[in-house]
Amino acid sequence: MKPISGILLAFLFWSLPAAADTLRPGDDVAICGDSITEQRMHSVLIEDYLLMCQPVPIPEVQQFGWSGETIRGLLSRVKNDVLPFRPTVVTLCYGMNDGGYTTTNPRTVADFAKDTEATVQILKAGGARLILVGSPGAVDTERFKTWFIAKCSPDAYNQTLDDLGQAAKAVAEREGAVWVDVHGPMLAAMARAKAKYGQDYPLAVDGVHPPWNGQLVMAYSFLKALGCTGDIGTITLDARTGAAEASEGHKILSAAGGRIEIESSRYPFCFVDDPKDPLSTRAVLDCVPFNEDLNRFRLVVHHAAAKMKVTWGTESRVFTPAELERGINLAAVFLDNPFHDAFAAVDAAVKAQQAYETPAVKSMLHSLADWRRFLPERQAEYDQLQALAVAKDRELNQAARAALRPVRHVLEVSEVSITGEP
Predict the structure, then answer these.
(1) Which one-letter DSSP state was computed for residue 200?
(2) Tens of pLDDT, residues 246-288
(3) 138, 190 in Cβ contact below 8 A?
């Protein structure tokens, strides 16, 4: 595979297609996929973002990952397993297993397109108004070589995945759905990460399954396609007068002498996995424009006459008047910030909810299809069991939302003397 140029890397990220439609208040979101989704990583990142950072109230998010699944597998179970939750927005991410881990087979691509189209049609008939058809991701250009299922080179299988992604794009265009390019951004982030950390640095540890670093790229792709703008908020300070203002989702409680006390109901996205893990979300932040595109919590300081020290939580940074006038992205500069613990509490509730969904879907709900077929005389009881499983998930969704509390925090902005001390 030829090296990817910096210009192409930027294009692969910033050319992601805009959604023809976006999230609306009251939407319920279903995240469907294979074992990569069942890892409950990008699905958690997406739900975290939609719950804490996106200013559209989303009552529920569910993940429907199923290890080893192809799009034909979802087609066979979508009515029984997914539609009982009545999603209005659905994301699909298939193709990794569909390609057979070998070179492109035109028949395989045609079957993939046919089954994807049939699945989209069932979802639309079941009440989904916005369907995001994702391309498959990418296999690791080094680690895939040693994966026991691999039947071709990494470059060859990435071509297969790209071919399946293009077939998914054609289906999305025919069906009025939104195509999401996951493959291109994964390759771009992989090239950057390997250039930074070395060629053996993985975005998929076994060649196929991404840890948190690669899953952040997947979440980025879907959040962009959902129409998320990244405007978390802006705090504006006039250094001459000391007056401060805040955008929607944030309230100035007091402002005097460069000390601004704020109450925020909208969180910046926080990276709460292990920061010491080389495969964490933080490790890949230089390789994907997540903060730039989706996580802008800005401080703007007008009329600064000299360098200013900004303190937020326990950390401080010094900025020039020009930087402050343009605005600094607090979420990117201060990764360990006053929102971290509150964000982690909601994230834990989201993880508990999604951990329930795996057995709820794969065991509890999925088995009802056989009960209905072989003992059809007990339909009312099966309906009750289905309702109980769905109701428990709604309970857990609400628990995650109840964990979201306004955060009070303080920004301190002070002039830096010639000696470098305020």
Answers:
(1) T
(2) 999 999 999 999 999 999 999 999 999 998 999 999 999 999 9
(3) yes
* Beta strand 28-33 pairing with 60-65: parallel
CA atoms of 58 and 87, how far apart (whole Å): 11
Quick one: 6-225 is in which CATH superfamily? Answer: SGNH hydrolase (3.40.50.1110)
Answer yes or no: are the C-beta atoms of 90 and 124 closer than 8 Å: no
* Cα(198)–Cα(16) distance, integer angstroms: 27
Q: Which two tokens stand for residue 82?
A: 């997914």
Largest separation between any pair of C-alpha atoms in the chain: 85
Q: What is the pLDDT of residue 21?
A: 72
| Euclidean distance between CA atoms 223 and 45, whole angstroms | 10
pLDDT at residue 55, as a whole number:
80
Which tokens belong to 73?
Answer: 């597998």
Model confidence over 307-351: pLDDT tens digits?
999 999 999 999 999 999 999 999 999 999 999 999 999 999 999
Tell me the pLDDT band of 419, cut-offs 50, 70 and 90.
Answer: low
366: nearest Cα among 64, 157, 134, 133: 64
The first and second tokens of residue 61, run together, are 């998010």
d(CA 160, CA 144): 14
DSSP 349-363: HHHHHHHHHHHIIII
Closest CA to 163 of 113, 225, 232, 221: 113
Whether the CB-CB separation of 303 and 238 falls below 8 Å is answered with: yes
**Residue 176 β-bridge partners:** none
Report the candidate in 126, 28, 23 with the shortest Cα–Cα distance to residue 74. Answer: 126
Element (H, E) at 233: strand 231-238
33-90 pLDDT per residue, tens: 999 999 999 999 999 999 999 888 889 999 999 999 999 999 999 999 999 999 999 9
Q: Provide the pLDDT confidence category of residue 12 given band limits of 50, 70 and 90.
A: very low
- Residue 9 pLDDT: 45
d(CA 148, CA 99): 15
Domain boundaries defined on the chain: 6-225, 231-339+405-415
CB 58 within 8 A of CB 23: yes
Which among 88, 83, 92 is positioned nearest to 65, based on CA atoms? 92
Give CA–CA dist 155/56, Å, rounded.
40
Distance separating alpha carbons of residues 158 and 269, to the nearest angstrom: 31
Contact (Cβ atoms closer than 8 angstroms) between residue 151 and residue 102:
yes
Return the ∠ at Cα 385 (arms to 382 and 390), rounded to 5°: 125
